[in-house]
User: Fold this.
Amino acid sequence: MNNFSIQQLCHINKPVYIWGARALGCGVLRLVQRENLNIKGFIDSDKAFKDRKILGYHVYPPTHLKENFISEKPYVIIASSTSEYTISRLCEQMGMRKFSDFCTSSEICGVEYIIDIVGACNLACPSCPRGNYPDQPSKGIMSLKKYEKVIEKILEESPNVSMISLYNWGEPLLHPQLQDFITIQKNKKIFSSVSTNFNIKNNIKSLVSAKLDMLKVSVSGYFQKNYGVTHFKGDINLVKSNLYKLRYFMDKVNSEMEVEIIYHKYRNNTGNDLEKFRSLAQELGFSFAEIFAYYNPVEKVIDYLEGRGVDKDMQLIEELFISIDEAISNTEKTEKRLCPLKENQVVINWNGSVSLCCACYDPKKTIIADDFLDIPLNEILSLKHKNTLCKTCMDYGIDQYYFDTSQRTVEKNII
Ligand SMILES: C[S@@+](CC[C@H](N)C(=O)[O-])C[C@H]1O[C@@H](n2cnc3c(N)ncnc32)[C@H](O)[C@@H]1O
Ligand code: SF4
Ligand code: SF4
Assistant:
């Protein structure tokens, strides 16, 4: 553990740039705002951010930093999980010193929290345990009262928390009080992000009026033929009409909400479907991120690797752009490295129970505590270390399968 903290930055008194304008960087922005630091903007070379503002701040290319280094003497916080090392080296090449001139988000933010406020979904995607898992956990939604207590405890135990995601294996837009959850988080200056399948008929206007920070819209095709297979039970025309409505509501109030369309790539949807969706995102002024779809959850990947009970999923497995075998063959198979989801993440389910990590699902194997409110953070982290699923997961390199597959395209342009 390092002894560096965000509070030390207050004494450094330099203009701050956040390198990385995606969710991680946005979380850092809210944390830095809570400390009243002088924020200059984001740095990111992804062309998707060219000439754009994110949450009211300019996104500059890395050359801006070089050009203004002498006159501004800035401080850089690196917010990129995959390019942390490379960007650190670039900062050093510019003459910056670790901690005095730059640091990384992981050194100042601490634990990442996920609160799955809705334990249910209206769709049944075959790559997701909501669609492929034989034993389903009990369904329900978190009460506002419970959520308020959870937030209180989080802030007490992790005052440097930068973001809380309000989803894991559920559809958060099904919650009738979603707006109130967002408002509470907004008032605490914690970055809030919601991911949705957008197959809903209400709640759109309320996301805008509650001033949600980031909305991710998950899709897997522009036309129903492909979309309806990988987003089983979904209707892509409803999604598209909701995207137009969202733009309309956002324009009416000059909303700064960051909207990112997350396009899941499979073998069958990377041609016309992908290009049409990219154009739609551009037309509506929303970010567009392509990710390679992967097979979920951890327990199912283990079943696949051990040749057990995945016959029903074989059609989906064969459609994956990067096959499980190929991805797994490139991972390091050892228990000896650190998995960030084990070290640094707390997942709280709708009923308050705590899961091992965001990538596992089976309540019989992966619930490590019945109620987040009854157990201190240090005990939660130590219980995670005692769970036996991690050993099998890491022995196969499955933790890296998720990390590498999901990050391969999202952050490729950050430097
Ligand atoms: C399980 S979903 C739950 C939230 C919401 N129902 C949705 O689908 O966006 C959580 C995140 O996982 C991502 N996701 C879902 N299926 C995926 C897959 N097969 N591969 C990669 N990411 C996936 C989604 O894009 C979303 O951001
Ligand atoms: S990925 Fe999202 S939309 Fe699809 S089944 Fe899972 S929770 Fe539902
Ligand atoms: S090792 Fe696997 S099961 Fe354990 S926390 Fe990491 S991803 Fe989850």
